[in-house]
Specification:
With 84 residues, this protein is an alpha+beta fold. It has one domain. It is built from 2 helices and 3 strands. Strands 1-3-2 form a 3-stranded antiparallel beta sheet. A hairpin with a 4-residue loop joins strand 2 and strand 3.
Length: 84
């Protein structure tokens, strides 16, 4: 999700570009992430989710969480393993 903060509001990110944690880099993301977490973020308006094309983009409320995502991105090395 932190990568979405680096995009323009109209840009999309493919699901496979999103990783659940560092240990999963280079592997397909978990079904739970696709079927549970991303739909919840979409329902809240933080992202726009296209399950047909496997793409997400910034939703109408994305600006509300963008500062948090940028903070996590800048200081991710200080967080416990698997958080970023």
């Amino acid at each position: 999700m932190t990568g979405l903060a680096a995009t323009e509001p109209t840009e999309t990110v493919h699901f496979t570009e999103i990783r659940t944690d560092e240990s999963n880099t280079g592997t397909p993301i978990h079904a739970e992430y696709i079927h549970l977490h991303l739909p919840k973020l979409a329902d809240a308006g933080y992202i726009v989710l296209d399950e047909q094309t496997y793409e997400i983009s910034q939703g109408p409320r994305f600006a509300e969480i963008e500062p948090f995502l940028e903070l996590v991105q800048r200081h991710g090395e200080r967080l416990p393993d698997g958080w970023v």
